[in-house]
Design brief:
heterodimer; A: about 400 residues; alpha/beta; seven-stranded mixed sheet; B: alpha/beta; eight-stranded mixed sheet; 11 helices; binds thiamine diphosphate; binds iron/sulfur cluster
């Protein structure tokens, strides 16, 4: 049984999502923050700047870089020099960081970065979908997706603990839906400094740039060596599967809050239909599920918290007795007509004896609202799949034919 | 003086980058952390699991060395170790004048306490001698080759030291591997000055320029003696020191004919007029710096 989430109402304050994240970053005691503004991440870096201006983050340098490319590049240097590092970005900023993302993970630097997920250009759009982070899925960063502001705030501390573990040493992206979470005010319990100090030990790296003990970072590896570096990164990713679960439990022990480990479940026990999704949309889905359950539709939710590493076993366990799995993706792998979560869920099941039909829907691109009706329609179509099998494997929803 | 760059690296015989790195380290001393973007120097000194560096060294990408240096400097400050190590960035001309330009500009504008050394071999050597923003007028490279209707690179070198002066850097200087003492002293001075300092070192590449492997230093000296590469220091925007040439100024022709990359100027029709244009570049330097 998953632990029950105990939110201490007396400690709740109503703040903007970005503020909660900035506050979380602050109490994690970063030594170097380096970031560049981009909507809808901007408020996070503004709040952090204000904390700096008010002297609220001790032993920390804030680098006001000239681009996202340098924002992350600076953290290559600071992390290698032994600092705990933080950044935040989204969309075009994240895409601009692409080359550095590989660099950080390849050097095994445990940087943590919040992504306020946003669509990518062209056409330019500032609104939420997951295309930005999904485009970076193979860069060797852990990717955790949050359902609400409380979760993304708490996830920040969890991410440091996972990333900095000596057996992991992989950077993390904590993903929050742009605007939907970044610009919304919700009652939350802000991370407490004393509890966070108890939960998150200071970062004590084994390998640092230090003239007393010179080491070379990021050497040139010929074909005799390169493969082993990649292999070791993948091994660390696999170890992270357990670590993410452990850290979620350790977090619960200290703070009494729990949102699932790799995944979370909602009314899945007897569900024939399982909806899978990531991010804030799961809140909407839960409400639809409640409504449909009142009408005796046996539907449940599988929320994916960790997209990287991908929780194959956890997913298999939940979907094995279902009659259909519906995957909602706020992204598309162009040329396959599928979203990434859908593709990877299918591939997780292929070489198993679990023979549940899996269908995919691409929803909410560029911030398009995902309405109750849409999800109900999708569930109705899933009921048909149970009766008649798959007719359409993967499709866009709510396309305006009149605009095509 | 101890060399902090171990022998046995994989550079070409007579490699300018190796000399430049060695001299820069002699100037900076052992309490430094080196950032080195992609290029000949990086590739030849760190074939895993070996390394030629006797100081902490980090490579990340071709275009972000100054930003990585900014991060190291910030971390040292935050961790209370700022007095324990100097940050020394060493990049090729491609990494400096072209692809890394924005990151250098940002680091200097922000005023990080680091020293950036540009090792200027006047082309992208690591990828096989393609032109860069530092390639001089009329040099033949693989992407600016001389040909029936071309004298080679059609534009003069970008004036990077002037750009760095314009950033308000407290110390900007030019030097050359042909004058090791000059280079060692200037790097030392640069690392001792608070704030972002810039050292631009001329570094003739035997392979890319086409001269005998024993002639690296000779070619380097000739660039200075013709006035094509003036050696000067700029402190807080003012030229404070210039290496005078006196009466011994050599015609540019002597420099050009030492190198295969300018060979076409001596065989093609109209070459003489082109050489005169290069002489005019040197003459302008001679006048401007009072060489
Ligand atoms: C983004 C990117 N583009 C291109 C390259 C290929 N590349 C590697 S080194 C190099 C040229 C390096 O030239 P320079 O900085 O002048 O150093 P040198 O090798 O001449 O010492 C190039 C183009 C790269 N590594 N990264
Ligand atoms: S090509 Fe030039 S810079 Fe590169 S290793 Fe050879 S001599 Fe050195």
């Amino acid at each position: 049984m998953a632990p029950e989430n105990k939110l201490d109402k007396s400690k709740m304050v109503v703040v903007e999502g970005s503020y909660a994240v900035a506050h979380a970053a602050k109490v994690c005691r970063p030594n170097v923050i380096s970031a560049y503004p981009i909507t809808p991440q901007t408020h996070i870096v503004e709040d952090l700047s204000q904390f700096m201006a008010d002297g609220e983050i001790p032993n920390c340098e804030y680098i006001n870089v000239e681009s996202e490319f340098s924002a992350l590049s600076a953290l290559v240097g600071s992390s290698a020099a032994g600092a705990r590092c933080y950044s935040a970005t989204t969309s075009q900023g994240l895409e601009l960081m692409h080359e550095v993302l590989f660099n950080i993970s390849g050097m095994r630097l445990p940087v943590v970065m919040t992504i306020a997920n946003r669509a990518v250009s062209a056409p330019i759009s500032i609104w939420n979908d997951h295309q930005d982070a999904i485009s970076q899925r193979d860069t060797g960063w852990l990717q955790l997706y949050a359902e609400n502001i409380q979760e993304v705030s708490d996830m920040t501390a969890q991410a440091y603990k996972i990333s900095e573990d000596k057996d992991i040493l992989m950077p993390s992206m904590t993903c929050m839906d742009g605007f939907i979470l970044s610009h919304v005010y919700e009652p939350v319990v802000l991370l407490e400094q004393d509890l966070t100090d108890e939960f998150l030990p200071t970062y004590e790296p084994e390998y640092v740039l230090d003239p007393k003990n010179p080491m070379s970072f990021g050497a040139f590896a010929d074909p005799n060596y390169y493969t082993e570096f990649r292999y070791m990164q993948e091994q660390a990713m696999q170890r992270a599967l357990k670590k993410i679960e452990d850290v979620a439990n350790e977090f619960y022990d200290v703070y009494g809050r729990y949102y699932g480990g790799l995944i979370d479940e909602y009314r899945t026990d007897d569900a024939d239909i399982i909806i899978m999704a990531m991010g804030s949309i799961v809140g909407t889905i839960k409400d639809v599920i409640d409504k449909l359950r009142d009408r005796n539709v046996k539907v449940g939710l599988l929320k994916v918290r960790s997209f990287r590493p991908f929780p194959v076993e956890a997913i298999k366990n939940v979907v094995k007795d279902a009659k259909v799995v519906v995957v909602l993706d706020k992204n598309i792998s162009l040329g396959l007509n599928e979203g990434a979560l859908f593709t990877e869920t299918k591939s997780s099941l292929y070489n198993t004896d679990i023979r549940v039909p899996v269908v995919g829907y691409m929803v909410g691109h560029g911030g398009r609202d995902i309405k109750f009706d849409t999800i109900e329609k999708i569930v109705a179509e899933a009921e048909d799949v149970i009766k008649t099998g798959i007719k359409i494997e993967s499709q866009f929803t709510d396309v305006k034919e009149e605009l095509l | 003086m101890k060399s902090l760059l171990a022998p046995g690296h994989r550079g070409c015989a007579g490699c300018c980058d190796a000399m430049a790195a060695k001299f820069a380290l002699m100037g900076a001393g052992e309490d430094c952390i080196v950032v080195n973007p992609t290029g000949c120097l990086e590739v030849m000194t760190t074939p895993f699991p070996e390394t030629a560096w006797d100081v902490p060294w980090i490579h990340s990408l071709f275009e972000n060395a100054a930003a990585v240096g900014s991060g190291i400097e910030a971390a040292l400050k935050a961790l209370g170790k700022a007095d324990k190590a100097k940050v020394l960035v060493m990049g090729g001309d491609g990494a400096t004048l072209d692809i890394g330009m924005r990151s250098i500009s940002g680091a200097f504008e922000r005023g990080h306490n680091l020293t950036y050394v540009c090792i200027d071999n006047e082309a992208y050597m690591n990828t096989g001698v393609q032109r860069s923003g530092a390639t001089p007028y009329n040099a033949s490279t693989t992407t600016s080759p001389s040909g029936k209707v071309s004298f080679g690179n059609p534009r003069p070198k970008k004036n990077m030291p002037a750009i760095m002066v314009a950033h308000g850097a407290p110390y900007v200087t030019t030097t050359s591997i042909g004058y090791p003492k000059d280079m060692i002293n200037k790097v030392k001075k640069a690392t001792e000055i608070e704030g972002p300092t810039y050292v631009h070192s001329h570094a003739p590449c035997t392979t890319g320029w086409g001269f005998d492997t024993s002639k690296t230093v000779e070619v380097a000296k000739m660039a200075v003696q013709t006035g094509l590469w003036p050696l000067y220091e700029v402190e807080d925007g003012e030229v404070t020191k210039v290496r005078k040439l006196g009466k011994n100024i050599k015609p540019v022709e002597e420099y050009l004919k030492m190198q295969r990359r300018f060979k076409h100027l001596f065989t093609m029709e109209g070459g003489e007029a082109e050489i005169a244009k290069i002489q005019a570049i040197a003459d302008k330097n001679i006048e401007e710096f009072g060489l």
